Amino acid sequence: MARWPAPRRCKSRLAAGGLGPARAARVQQRLLGHALAVLAQGTAAVGARGRLALAGAGPAAAARLLPCGQSLEAVTQGRGGLGERMARQFMAGLRQGYRQVVLVGSDLPCLTAADLQLAFAALGQAPCVLGPAADGGYWLVGLNRGASALFAGIDWGGDRVFQQTLARADQLGLAPVLLPQQSDLDAIGDLLVWR
After folding, report:
1. Across the chain, where does the E strand assignment appear?
2. Cα dihedral sign for 116, 118, 123, 124?
3. What is the phi-psi region of residue 126: left when phi exceeds 0, alpha when psi lies from -120 to 50, beta otherwise?
């Protein structure tokens, strides 16, 4: 899942933190390129299909972001809050017949294909997989069944997203496998990791 990499449409905290909108959009473009390369590599390794779910632009624009020669699909995230958009992507994947669906953000400079492989392997053993983020959210979520309620009642953007999601998973009987913690790139200080 990603935002359109254009000034004032992405990375608002980076832009406000001193980079400005144009440089923040360039950071988003590089992060998205990295995420798409990892997605193509990781999904090929496990025999999965990759999809870019984009916010802030239509399907034709989303398709233009895809690297040539890769079998990735581009779709829009649609309307609604983050939880609604995530639930929509899960349900679309399950309706298309996929037994496992994994969502990952596009702002992860340390994301590797091995991370995706671990997530899909975990879904062979458990109904849910979560990758906690250093900021209190999560960088990956995966399910092997429909569970839209997992995304309801979460204070998106806050530092309790991961804990609230764990509580929801417990209520729904979705004992998750936890992946190693990663840091996403939201603030100027986060850029130091990514050189």
Report:
1. 2-3, 50-55, 72-76, 101-104, 128-132, 138-143, 176-178
2. positive
3. beta
Higher pLDDT, 62 or 159: 159
Residue 191 or residue 57, greater confidence: 57
What's the CA gap between 102 and 150, in Å, rounded?
A: 14
Integer Cα distance of 180 and 131 in angstroms: 6
Amino acid in position 94: L
Which region holds residue 153: left if phi is over 0, alpha if psi is between -120 and 50, else beta? left
Rounded to whole angstroms, the Cα distance separating 33 from 44 reads: 17
What CATH architecture does domain 2-193 belong to?
A: Alpha-Beta Complex (3.90)
Residue for token pair 């994301």: 111
- CA distances (Å), 1 to each of 58, 138, 186, in order? 14, 13, 15
Cα 169 from chain centroid (whole Å): 18
Whether the predicted model's global pTM rises above the 0.70 cut: yes
Measured distance CA(99)–CA(49) in Å, rounded: 12
Whole-angstrom Cα distance, residue 139 to residue 179?
10
Residue 152 in contact with residue 83, Cβ under 8 Å?
Answer: yes
Q: Is the CB of residue 151 less than 8 Å from the CB of residue 84?
A: yes
Residue 152 identity: A
